[in-house]
Amino acid sequence: xxxxxxxxxxxxxxxxxxxxxxxxxxxxxxxxxxxxxxxxxxxxxxxxxxxxxxxxxxxxxxxxxxxxxxxxxxxxxxxxxxxxxxxxxxxxxxxxxxxxxxxxxx
Length: 106
Ligand SMILES: [Cu+2]
Known about the structure:
Elements lengths: L1 H19 L2 E7 L2 E2 L3 E4 L3 E7 L5 E6 L5 E7 L4 E6 L3 E6 L7 E6 L1
Parallel strand pairs: 1-4, 3-9
Antiparallel strand pairs: 1-2, 4-7, 5-6, 5-8, 8-9
This protein binds copper (II) ion (CU).
Copper (II) ion (CU) binds next to loops.
């Protein structure tokens, strides 16, 4: 009986731990990001969801022009990016050059 309760407490702890991580959802629809500028806190995650019927891609570019390619993102797929460093970041889709937004991390 004790083992069962310990297991239940562990599940509750893990679940509530996940809820504390702030995540903002950005939709990709009509080959655009749903917001062109966003401010998040250091350590926050952004959840990009492809609501288009075409493949997208997420490139995270920092102020020094270092790009992190998050790979291809098929219709319906989501990509999460955690921002653990303060600064300004450009988000671009390498397939659709007009698709871009900025994220400020404070
Ligand atoms: Cu795209």
